[in-house]
Amino acid sequence: MPNLPSLGLRNRNNRAPRTTPRAPAPTSDYVVDCAIYVDGHRVEGTWNHSDAVDEVRRRGTGFVWIGLHEPTEQQINGLADTFGLHELAVEDAVHAHQRPKLERYDNTLFMVLKTVRYLSSERRSATSEIVDTGELMVFLGRDFVITVRHGKHAGLAQVRSQLEADPEQLALGPSAVLHGVADHVVDTYLEVTEAIQDDIDEIEAEVFEPRTKIDAEQIYLMKREVLELRRAVLPLTKPMQRLAEGYTPMVADEVRSYFRNVEDHLAKVSELVGSFDELLTTLVDATLAKITLQQNTDMRKISAWVAIISTPTMIAGIYGMNFTSMPELSWTFGYPGVLVVMLVACVVLFKIFRRNKWL
């Protein structure tokens, strides 16, 4: 596709869009897979992006699916020129750190999804992340779909294999790939929420278990990760609704019903994440109350022992003043008598505090 005139547009860095051709980087440097699909079946052969799109347009049917992993700006330039990708979308795909969204640039759809992965307790420390996040961008055109993945997880090999095993679904075109990607991402949301639910259930049981010591840091860490998951899930709700409602003719009518199913799953995840946030807030309050109660109990014990120890200390202090005229100074049994008084006073105070459950 020829380069489009810049029309005076500028990107986010206030740079004018490029109009000169950009040389593509070697395919093996950044392309995970590049394939042609005709009538739902993969065309045999090894293709680079330019040969693949030429073959599809020569046939007049089918589409190209290219998968990329963390490409640099220089590496993605060749694809941007070949498929006519918009400057702003390309910039987002390279630099990542975007919120989930759906944008339309002329005849191309650009969608951003957040990917998540649950880290089991064996793979994390006390202060490490519980949910690892990444990003997945999808460029959707009439005869192509390009997926750009950031992060070491959420690979799309499984999605590609499942679609290739279902030629009838894949024959619906590039929008079927977009649905497969979105469905895969939302399914991982469900898996992560189920794992987090188990963790929260354990924390809840520990918080309300009598005579257990709770580490509030663990709950704060869990709440932080739930908020991270919430930032990945909630912004995706509106884009998924738009795809299910026929936001663009590039999404086949047969595929829109599938997006409604993904939207339902996403709504379930959103409800779970919201309930997690509320429950963790309640657990934080309960933990703080339990810690305060424990501190009050400890203070009562300290106060009780101080009162017990202060009695013999007071008596010893009185008789240590060394006045000449003091009772029992010349009494033979004065010293053992004072010791007995100290012991009896301590035992009486100990029983009183024990009966009142201060000790």
From TrEMBL:
<dbReference type="GO" id="GO:0015095">
    <property type="term" value="F:magnesium ion transmembrane transporter activity"/>
</dbReference>
<keyword id="KW-1133">Transmembrane helix</keyword>
<dbReference type="InterPro" id="IPR002523">
    <property type="entry name" value="MgTranspt_CorA/ZnTranspt_ZntB"/>
</dbReference>
<feature type="transmembrane region" description="Helical">
    <location>
        <begin position="333"/>
        <end position="353"/>
    </location>
</feature>
<dbReference type="GO" id="GO:0015087">
    <property type="term" value="F:cobalt ion transmembrane transporter activity"/>
</dbReference>
<keyword id="KW-0472">Membrane</keyword>
<dbReference type="InterPro" id="IPR004488">
    <property type="entry name" value="Mg/Co-transport_prot_CorA"/>
</dbReference>
<feature type="compositionally biased region" description="Low complexity">
    <location>
        <begin position="10"/>
        <end position="26"/>
    </location>
</feature>
<feature type="transmembrane region" description="Helical">
    <location>
        <begin position="302"/>
        <end position="321"/>
    </location>
</feature>
<dbReference type="InterPro" id="IPR045863">
    <property type="entry name" value="CorA_TM1_TM2"/>
</dbReference>
<dbReference type="GO" id="GO:0050897">
    <property type="term" value="F:cobalt ion binding"/>
</dbReference>
<comment type="similarity">
    <text>Belongs to the CorA metal ion transporter (MIT) (TC 1.A.35) family.</text>
</comment>
<comment type="function">
    <text>Mediates influx of magnesium ions. Alternates between open and closed states. Activated by low cytoplasmic Mg(2+) levels. Inactive when cytoplasmic Mg(2+) levels are high.</text>
</comment>
<protein>
    <recommendedName>
        <fullName>Magnesium transport protein CorA</fullName>
    </recommendedName>
</protein>
<dbReference type="Pfam" id="PF01544">
    <property type="entry name" value="CorA"/>
</dbReference>
<dbReference type="InterPro" id="IPR045861">
    <property type="entry name" value="CorA_cytoplasmic_dom"/>
</dbReference>
<keyword id="KW-0460">Magnesium</keyword>
<keyword id="KW-0813">Transport</keyword>
<dbReference type="GO" id="GO:0005886">
    <property type="term" value="C:plasma membrane"/>
</dbReference>
<keyword id="KW-0406">Ion transport</keyword>
<keyword id="KW-0812">Transmembrane</keyword>
<keyword id="KW-1003">Cell membrane</keyword>
<dbReference type="GO" id="GO:0000287">
    <property type="term" value="F:magnesium ion binding"/>
</dbReference>
<feature type="region of interest" description="Disordered">
    <location>
        <begin position="1"/>
        <end position="26"/>
    </location>
</feature>
